[in-house]
Amino acid sequence: MSDTEPMMVDCGVHGERVATVVCRHMLGGSQAAPLGFIENSSDPDDLQAWCYLCEEKFEQEGGMTEAFRKFNDMAIVCVSCYADAKSRHAIRAS
After folding, report:
1. 59 pLDDT higher than 70
2. CA 61, CA 57: separation in Å to the nearest integer?
3. What is d(CA 11, CA 17) in angstroms, rounded to the nearest whole number?
4. DSSP designation for 87
5. pTM of whole model > 0.85?
């Protein structure tokens, strides 16, 4: 159990919630197809995710380079928005 308080964010939709991070590609509008959802931390108190395009760029760059950061354009969202993005973009095996 962590001794530090989680970072909070005031979400316009969900109110004050725990802050998480997603790539900017997952925000705004409802895309026709899921973009993929890759969680980047095994720590359940550190929710971070990006889409398959970001994963491809990460691999091409060999890590979190400036080019990757610019492409990813991380956004801080609340834990409820993170869950919504996960349900919209996770690709389920058939």
Report:
1. yes
2. 6
3. 7
4. H
5. yes
